Amino acid sequence: MSATDDLLVEAERLAAELEGTDPPTLLDVRWRLAGAPGRDDYLAGHLPGAVFVDLDTALCGAPGPAGRHPLPEPVALEAALRAAGVRAGHPVVVYDGGDGMSAARAWWTLRWAGHRPVRLLHGGYPAWTAAGLPVSTDQPAPRPGDVTVRPGALPVLDAAAAARLAAGDGVLIDVRAAPRYRGEHEPIDPVAGHIPGAVNLPAPEYVAEGRFPAAEALRDRFAAAGVAAEAPVGAYCGSGVTAAQAVFALHLAGRADAALYVGSWSNWVADPDRPVATDPTPDRSDA
Question: What pTM value is reported for the model?
């Protein structure tokens, strides 16, 4: 099995797996930053057997100084995953509305919690329907799972570690749109700009409509942004959702050591003493 097979599953292959005697657990994690709740999409139609899991309330902690999508409490996460039928060591497939962001954050959260057999449906729900595969409006009542959450299986950055990485200990990637990085526009958080030393690589430059390019193309794109094979790498965004997608892409590129700054910009600007940069390119002359 390739590294990609361990991370992504195409719709047709998933459909075949669901016909087996012990199919993977399906988690529908559709989510929007603004607009109608993802549960509405789920109720309108979902993959047969899928259980809806809310990103905001089940996979993340309550918003606050730690960020808009901080780490969940392990006990609460374990309860949510068990209620969704997640079993110890049993494969899970997560999917979203097609952009791959909330699915990547769900993938990251389960992997961080120590549950390794989890893959992302490539292209999400639109890929499933485009393949002409069946959908359902039934709401299954899964048998409670027995997964145990063991935090720390994937690396996490706090603000201090992110600052060190950006200052020259490695490469810190800011995956927000360039105007937000440059401090020209900030639609969500109270302060505009970026972490000093971070490099900007907006998400659309390495993933398009939830579809990831081949590993070699990803390696080339990250290398062009300054990610060297021997240097530590981490990612952040506004609140740790899009950045989780960057970490997923880095895993596809062979960087399973990539770290996520979960609190991201929403945590960084919660402390007014932390520096903010608005330069278009990072000054790493002392790195």
Answer: 0.95
Tokens in use for 34? Answer: 């603004």
Distance between CA 179 and CA 281 in Å, rounded?
Answer: 12
Residue 60 carries which DSSP code?
Answer: S
Task: Tell me the C-alpha distance between 117 and 92, whole Å.
Answer: 6
The 10s digit of each residue's pLDDT in 132-190 is 999 999 999 999 999 999 999 999 999 999 999 999 999 999 999 999 999 999 999 99
Residues whose CB falls within 8 Å of the CB of residue 143, separated by 6 or more in sequence, listed in order: 85
**pLDDT at position 45 over 70:** yes
Which is it for strands 8-9 and 171-174: parallel, antiparallel or unpaired? unpaired
60: annotated active-site residue: no
Q: Are 30 and 129 in contact (CB under 8 A)?
A: no
Q: What whole-number distance in Å separates Cα of residue 113 and Cα of residue 85?
A: 15
Choose, from 237, 244, 262, 269, the residue flagged as catalytic.
237
Q: Residue 46 phi/psi, 5° resolution? A: -155, 170
CA distance 159 to 174: 14
Check: CB of residue 200 under 8 Å from CB of residue 174.
yes
Burial class (CB in 10 A: 0-12, 13-18, 19+), 75: exposed
What are the tokens at 186? Answer: 């900030």
CA distances from 203 to 18, 74, 98, 250 (A): 31, 29, 14, 12
What amino acid is encoded at 120 in this protein? L
